[in-house]
Amino acid sequence: MLDFQTALLTKKQFLLSELQTHGLRLVDARVGASSRLGGAGPTDHKAVTVLGTTIMVPVHTRTAARSPYVAAPPDRRGISVLLEEGRTVCEISFPPQPKFYALATQDGVPYWKIAQLHSRDTLATTVLQTCVRYGNSATKCRFCAIGESLRAGRTIAKKTPEQLAEVAGAAQQLDSIRNVVMTTGTPPTEDRGADVLAESALAIKARTDLPIQGQCEPPADFAWFGRLHSAGVDSLGMHLEAWDEDVRRRIMPGKAEVPVTFYLEAFAAAVAVFGRGQVSTYLLAGLGDSIEGLLEASQRLIEIGVYPFVVPFVPVSGTPLADHPPASVEFMRSVLQPLGHWLTQAGMTSNTVKAGCAKCAACSTLSTFERPGVETD
Ligand code: SF4
């Protein structure tokens, strides 16, 4: 029989996975911090604190509009009741709007267009909001909405190092953020965005002591890893998104021109610079990789010191995959349970990562499967 703590954790893992799979309907859409709409990576979601853990839950997707889960309007304390098919499940809350969102640069750019709060304490930005692969259906990643937020005027095309340092300083002072994630669209240069990440990291580190994760495609010259590290990047993300080459070609025809074998070479070179567990990759569950494929990928990656951040794919509005079904709770559990165990055995759990998505951990329930029986929030 399950002991009390294990039973509680299992119930929590199930509920968190259910919410990330089905999404959440909000009776009052204004609750908490503004939600992300469009942009790079998983999006169209909102930070929600459920049973003590803050996760990102889809709220703007078509799946979310049909979700059995509903958040009632919050009370005076900011606490909402989570309902499933009308039945009370538990109380939930929404991290409040960060204070730095009210500020603007001297030339009038609102800080929230430069960087956003993700989950509770992670500042995230897309340094270049343009991508050489976007804009052409033969090359663009079919899940990506990097151009949508730019088109809608919710962000700016390029964030300068000075702007990023200014916003990071304010967010640390006013909202106690604890780490920075910088991703970038891929420019048409061989550094694949490493150059803008390095100059941005230098500026942020000159203003703050915040740990930083950089995210880009593998650069042609692996000497960029040393340059990024010297510039102040503490952790690095290079995102495979999918493992099977057929799935990669179907879902992201441009990015798939860089094969998995090249990523594996880049990972090994990056781990030699950043250390085991400080290099990570996104794997989007639900795009076509099988459970066995994702587990095989995870094993290979952990062996070379890379943290496989397996995240349920969120079908984002305005993308060709808007109607793609998300991975089921059972599918996620079949991958995350053994993966959490392997990461624990390898000493590469989320809490050992210095900065970035694997540290923030809000886009997946993976961290709740690490260190069984121990809360990881
Ligand atoms: S895991 Fe990454 S993309 Fe998801 S909320 Fe955290 S920082 Fe943002």
Structure description:
- The protein has 11 helices and 13 strands.
- The protein has helices at residues 4-22, 62-65, 146-151, 161-175, 194-207, 223-231, 245-251, 260-274, 291-303, 329-346, 357-360; strands at 25-26, 45-50, 53-58, 69-71, 79-84, 87-93, 116-118, 122-126, 179-183, 212-215, 235-237, 279-285, 306-312.
- Strands 7-8-9-10-11-12-13 form a 7-stranded mixed beta sheet.
- α5 (194-207) links the parallel β9 and β10.
- α4 (161-175) crosses α5 (194-207), α5 packs parallel to α6 (223-231) and α9 packs parallel to α10 (329-346).
- The relative contact order is 0.13.
- The structure holds iron/sulfur cluster.
Concise summary:
This protein has 377 residues and is of the alpha/beta class. It has helices spanning 4-22, 62-65, 146-151, 161-175, 194-207, 223-231, 245-251, 260-274, 291-303, 329-346, 357-360, and strands spanning 25-26, 45-50, 53-58, 69-71, 79-84, 87-93, 116-118, 122-126, 179-183, 212-215, 235-237, 279-285, 306-312. The strands form two sheets. The chain has a seven-stranded mixed sheet with strand order 7-8-9-10-11-12-13.
Low-confidence stretches: 373-377
Task: Give the SSE order as H and E letters.
Answer: HEEEHEEEEEHHEHEHEHHEHEHH
Overall outline: globular
Radius of gyration, whole Å: 19 Å
